[in-house]
Amino acid sequence: MTRIDRLKHLGFSEKEIKVYTTLLGLKQASVRQLAMASGVNRGTTYDILKSLMREGMTSYFHKEKKQYFVAESPDAITAVIDRRQKKLDDLKHEAVEIIPMLKALYEASDEKPVVKYYEGKRGIRSILNDVLEATQKNGKEYYVYSASDTRARLYEQYQQYSTERVKRGIKVKVIALGAGGELRGLDERKWIKIKEPASTYTIVYAGKVAYLTVDARNELAGVILENQGIYATQKVLFEQLWAHI
Fold first, then answer.
1. At the topology level of CATH, where does 3-78 sit?
2. DSSP at 19
3. What is the mean pLDDT of residues 45-61?
4. Which of 26, 87, 164, 243 yields a CA-CA distance of 20 to 30 A from 17?
């Protein structure tokens, strides 16, 4: 196996190898000099040098107002491989965490979702009660996409809701769509900036997903979808978004 083949096997492109090995031989060079010596066009050479700098394999200095590049010791390749291996290990760890959730979705039955519609103050209170009752029996944690305008109206119907949730030991993670919201205990909150106000408040809990909003008559209304597959999908999406905010 040639030197180039060995470096390709480690994940470097042929042009990266040409630029790096040529720079090793030159000790130091400008972009123009390196491009001519390596046979790689100037623009590509510069892009490769920036990439190799991020990997810790090259550096630069200025001399008489010109920029010169220097190849770092080949020992830097070991550090590059170590970083790449860590990224693979991190990806594997994420895969191990998400696979059971995806299996739950894959293995979910073909039963049709149960859909229940609620409206008015009593209806909304019924949904919030169901969140508490169902979550207390199943996992003691649920997830929320919070829309500020709807949230303000929502908890007018159940002002002691957060107190009751904490009393029952139920945790909640909230992704707030826009500003607002306060920590009440046993809760975590992250925010997403949005250009347009969101109108739907979504609760993902205990094999169900509830959507609450203000209808065209300016009345509160909500829907509960009960289906393990839909729930598993929404939970996976929430947790992935949560991890990257």
1. Arc Repressor Mutant, subunit A (1.10.10)
2. H
3. 90
4. 87
